[in-house]
Structures are given as C-alpha cells and as structure tokens.
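Standup notes
- HV: blocked on the assembly model, inputs below
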Amino acid sequence: MGVNTLLSNVPVRLGETAHLVQIYRDPAVLASTIGRYLDEGLQRGEAALVIARTDHWALIRRKLEQLRHDPLLLEEQGRLAFLEVRQTLDAVLRDGMPDRMLFRKKIGPAFAALASQGHTGVRAYGEMVSLLWREGRHDAALHLEALWNELAELHRFTLFCAYEGDCLSPEFHGRAAQDIFREHSHVLPPDDYDRLTSAVDGAMDDVLGGPESAALRPLIAACKRRPTVLPGAHATLHWIQSHLPRQMGDILAAARQRYER
Amino acid sequence: MTASACVVLAVEDDRNDRTLLRHAFRKGAAHVDLRTAKDAFEAEDYLAGRGLYVDRGAHPPPRLVLVDLKLPLRSGLEFLAWIKDQPPLREIPIIVLSSSQETCDLDGAFKLGARSYLVKSVDLKELISVAEGIGAYATLLAAS
C-alpha cells in the first residue's frame, strides 16, 4: 500500500483521530508527503499546524504552493500555523523530559487558535520526537508521543510524526522503536515501498532459504497484531525480530544490500 | 531445557480440532513431531516433565507451543502466565491459535509473552498453510 492510499484513508469523521508515523531519509521526499497530507486536510476544510525545522518548512511551503495553496494567505486566515521545532521542544522540556503542563501550555493554545476559526478539524505535523530520537533520548521521545495521544483526547486532530533515519537500520527494529510504533495508529511505508518490500522478501530468501520463507509468509500475514497498522515489509521485519531475533541482523543487512542495488 | 529438533506441543481441548491439527501437520509439515495436550494442566506436566511425562526420551521438550485460549479448568491466558513464571520455559516461543478475536484476549496474550496470535480457521487449506509456516519456523529455530 502506498503513502497516497494510506493518506486518503486517514479518518476525517467527527471524533476520529489518527496518529501516523513515517521514517524518512530524504527531506525533499518527506516534504512532498507532508505537503500532500496537509493538502488533503485543507481541501476538507481542516486547518494545519506544522512543527518543523525551518528548512523543512520551506520545502513544505513550496510543495503546498505547487498544490495551488497560498501559505501566506492561509496563515493570515488562521488556517495554517508554524512553530520552529527546536524552540518548541525546548519550551516543553523540564529536566530533559517532556513535561505535561509545559507541553499543554505550548501546544494547546496553537490548537485552540486554529479550532476557534471553526474549521472541521486540524492536521498536525511534528518533528520534536525526531530530534529527541536522533539525540538518543528514546525515553523522552516515547513520553512525548504519549503526551500527544493525551492531547488528542482534548483536541480533535490527526498527527503525522516523522523520524529521520533509515528504516532498515537496527535502531528502528529494537524494543525502543517498537514502543514508539505502538503509540501510533499507522506506520506509513516509505515512498519507494515496492522496492523495500522486494528487498525484504529477497533478504528472507537469502538468509532463511526460499522454501522456508515461502512457508513463513502466509503465517506472518495471518498473525493478528495490536492496534498499530503496519505496512507489509515492516510487519515482516517486526515478525522476524520477535520470532527469529538471531537472524534479524543478517536479514536487515541483506535487505539493505538489495535495497541499494 | 534443550528442545528437540521439531517437536511442537499443541494445547487444544476440542477433540475435532486436535484431529484437524494433526491432519494439517501431516499434510503441511510432516517433519514436525506434533504432541498434543487436552488442557493446560496436562501441557504444564508435559513441559515440566512431570507425571506421565517424566521420560524425556519418550516425551521430548518442544521447540514451540501452540495454545488455544478457551480451555477448560485453566484458560490459555493462565497457562501463558504460568509459563512466564518458569525461567527454564519462558524462552519457548508460544503461538496462540484461537477462535477469539477479542481485543482483551489479543492484548492479554501479547502481554503474557505470546509471540504470535493466529485466528483459527475452519478452512483446511488455511490450516495446512499455517502448519507449513509453523513447520518452517520450528526448523529455523532448530537450526539457530
């Protein structure tokens, strides 16, 4: 399933929210995805909040312009708001950990301002968790994700989180990453998802053997999961990590080789 | 506890389901030595090597365990909790094979250490496919 298909399935009915996450390597590709995500919301009468690096914000604005939006006008109309990510993160941390009161004090008014304009909902995009993750502060990132989920009970919004990194890196397949994924409703595939799927499938054949991989695939597909929706290649890697952890490193390495061919 | 190459223990109270499972493994994973227990107490005796299962030559430790959740006397979740409390056993992969799709069962099973949760199918082809996968998994576990 591609990103566009998943984005078009993001719930928009009153009272529904979604908490999406994607791992990205290329900021330009990310900006294109976020641009489409915000565009869909704006077309449905929603407002948008972006908490990002300024260079990413410039790319997202450009994408919105390509999609025939006028970001400046939207900001003046109170339909689009931007917060610089580092300043925002610093404002919500107490002793290095996200603090509930500081978080609500900083983020709550931004949502309240957008909501007061009578929009049908809010689409938010955030990079604070990515900064924490990149600094190795995984517990802080997890806590911040939980605070976002708490906030979603007060304000109706859809949130898109992006983590900078390589989705075939072991760091995104350990316990900390699984905990992060569990805080989300959907893990979105990368844009070149078919290539990733093919690389993971091929890596399973390389490492486990063709017949074994072929026999495992229906078993993996049949496994029921906790609420987070995982795309196929991620679900496969998640299964390998929990069932055959000793083979995980070899499979990730083989997938990486195939992915970059 | 050293597990034997391809022994799989299935904990299933329903006689028809046990018969179907045996058939599916014969068709899809004939290399698997499928042992069955009709309730959690019998399965615990098997895993602990107690009572009728003292002879490890005749009753080798399993590579993995399949468990139904809706069991008499002691539920599948209670069985999972028991395994979790047994240090020598807790590394054995547990795969739940249940007709229940209730969130509480799913979450409970994962919290208690189940690796996978499969919904029982009445379709024999699907059951054979699951047996093939479990057979491949048991083989890979034995090799690793």
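- HV (later): unblocked. Chain B is about 40% helix and 15% strand. The longest strand of chain B covers residues 7-11.
- Next: hand off to the docking folks.
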